[in-house]
Amino acid sequence: MSDTSTAAYTAEAARLDAADELAKHREKFALDDTVYLDGNSLGALPAHVPARMADVITRQWGELRIRSWDESGWWTAPERIGDRIAPLVGAADGQIVVGDSTSVNVFKAVVAATRLAGGDRDEILVDATTFPTDGYIAASAARMTGHRIVPLDPAEMPGAVTGRTALALVNHVDYRTGRLQDLPGVTAALHAAGALAVWDLCHSAGALPVGLDAHGVDLAVGCTYKYLNGGPGAPAYLYVAERHQARFDSPLPGWNSHADPFGMTPDYRAAEGAPRGRVGTPDILSMLSLEAALDVWDGVRIEDVRAKSLALTDFFLECVRAYAPEGRVTSVTPEAHAERGSQVALRCAEAPAVMAELIRRGVVGDLRRPDVLRFGFTPLYVGFADAERAARVLGEVLRDIPAG
Amino acid sequence: MSDTSTAAYTAEAARLDAADELAKHREKFALDDTVYLDGNSLGALPAHVPARMADVITRQWGELRIRSWDESGWWTAPERIGDRIAPLVGAADGQIVVGDSTSVNVFKAVVAATRLAGGDRDEILVDATTFPTDGYIAASAARMTGHRIVPLDPAEMPGAVTGRTALALVNHVDYRTGRLQDLPGVTAALHAAGALAVWDLCHSAGALPVGLDAHGVDLAVGCTYKYLNGGPGAPAYLYVAERHQARFDSPLPGWNSHADPFGMTPDYRAAEGAPRGRVGTPDILSMLSLEAALDVWDGVRIEDVRAKSLALTDFFLECVRAYAPEGRVTSVTPEAHAERGSQVALRCAEAPAVMAELIRRGVVGDLRRPDVLRFGFTPLYVGFADAERAARVLGEVLRDIPAG
Fold this sequence. Notes:
Radius of gyration of chain A: 22 Å
Oligomer: homodimer
Order of helices and strands of chain A: HEHHHEHEHEHEHEEEHHEEHEEEH
Number of strands of chain A: 13
CATH topology of the largest domain in chain A: Aspartate Aminotransferase, domain 2
Subunit structure (chains A, B): Homodimer.
Distance between the termini of chain A: 21 Å
Strand content of chain A: 5-15%
GO molecular function (chains A, B): kynureninase activity
Number of helices of chain A: 12
Structural class of chain A: alpha/beta
Pfam family, one (chains A, B): KYNU_C
Number of domains of chain A: 2
Strand order of the largest sheet of chain A: 2-8-7-6-5-3-4
Largest interface: A-B, 81 and 81 residues
CATH architecture of the largest domain in chain A: 3-Layer(aba) Sandwich
CATH superfamily of the largest domain in chain A: Type I PLP-dependent aspartate aminotransferase-like (Major domain)
Family (chains A, B): Belongs to the kynureninase family.
CATH class of the largest domain in chain A: Alpha Beta
Helix content of chain A: 25-40%
Function (chains A, B): Catalyzes the cleavage of L-kynurenine (L-Kyn) and L-3-hydroxykynurenine (L-3OHKyn) into anthranilic acid (AA) and 3-hydroxyanthranilic acid (3-OHAA), respectively.
């Protein structure tokens, strides 16, 4: 790489950063001189969260103690925080409840969807390219409900759905390649055959518009520790479209989902609305960290986030082409904007050694074994200079670590 | 109540507090002049937890970010913290994993127990006096596995277990009355008929010796926000006896329970040992708050906790008999030590108004509808003067609120 082109790309990055309307949000986060491109695994700490959590722990728990279930709004946190996430994924209020892990929510959603589908529908289509936990949990659900799992590439689903299909479980963005699946098209094809669409939004929520209500998605799950910056292992969420709530029949009907939880009656009667998706006592510390973290979205339009995300990944790919030695890395992330999430995945034969060295030099992405370098772009706190520096350091590392 | 007897009881309380070897642990907690008798619902804040959590949030999450999964020991927290709980419930290392809510762990345990029982055993005995979530979840599990629920008083279980019994799910201490069930006897009776014993330790762990290994319990669950002081909604735990681990077949086989979770292979292969009970990404903030809170148990023998707990509840009952107007409250907590947990439950026709006024006057217990006043005794931070004051204020409140 010539000094001339380095100068050109750094200048271009500076120009893009100066014109970036979202750049001002970076100061809301606790950052250092690392280029942090792993916010698609663990979002960075919003700078105001430590003080908020100190209050939660010291005053709400330490002083108010049990009274905080009412006085600090702990009891209603799962629905309240669900309504904070709702606009980011295109859902009206009252359809999202926060709690449990993504895996547990996949179980609720898949079992409940088989019950909503009913009748003779005995097949569950599962995204064969999915993050594995979805497949493991769907297989367990199918084993318990007597359904058959049909693994498919999401692109094949519209052609494969039949009158036997109960539902499809699909990842909106492939965690490995960063491919954005066709949520509107796949959902419409499922509906045309009378089947339900269950979407996993882990790698899309907070990075791009999802449009759950607009596209008629039936059920959805997602995590909150990636683009939503809720903190390590922050609770996941469950979306149940309003039209399905009255018939939503959870396989995990814990006391928190009861219509009268403090009646403590031996008979179960499900709550109305989103609380029906609750299970046990919510993990308040993790949950209120998420609630605080969501403040960074105040005044942010997800459409603007999407535009910057695409500009960032475009620019990063351009810099990689310029800086990386010929033939050493190949992007497995789609070029087409309509098919790209908010990450770039580069196949590289020396990926484990290269990622370790990148991290050592202050560029943090992650490795997806055996050979994928994964770089996540979180538009609220990653800028174009970060993208240029990451690509430049990648080029240097590739020159320092010889091929095979 | 005469001034003479008040003086006698306050003097007796002072004498008991002065002789109390556990009294020194009170200073480990953030307390005020409230008499906090609701630690069986939400344990008080250990005073060192805020600083520990500030480090977790600001340094581990904020500075190390994704590296903390390895460098701060996040990934191994569920088993590591399980091993911290193990000695409190009489379990050897490697059998307890922390994570998810109690309800979710009941689901894992009940379904896995039906699979371990196998064969023609189609009945699940469920403690009819249980905290309701256990019954709701057991019913859901039974619906999915094709078993039949048989609700019984735990005392009836030894006479009811047959060759059709797969398992019994029993609460060690009744959340409402405070009755301690016969864990060794019920477990032995189940085993004699070839059935499994699944115990819920929510109201016993941290209050009295449980002896999971010694009594051959098969599976157990419990929460950590009561006597273990883990914080609001701190994660629950699952005990799987070592002899069952190889055949433990979870209905929630999330990626965290995979033998090679970062292999991210489409085929599921269960981890060995306690991690097989994991599901999804652990809620690290809630979990590390629990880990910090467990430090208060350093140097504490659970047998000493039990002895003080019984002395406290004995003394409280004695004071209530002395202070409460005749006929206004009736204890539903067993007199016999062998049948008593660490709480006192008083039936009172005016319970809602009485508890509200008690709280207003600085004595915090809780109400279990419709008519139970519940007072939990947490021996690490509740003393005999607290017990005397609580009974004295109760007497005053009962005189001020006339009988219905």
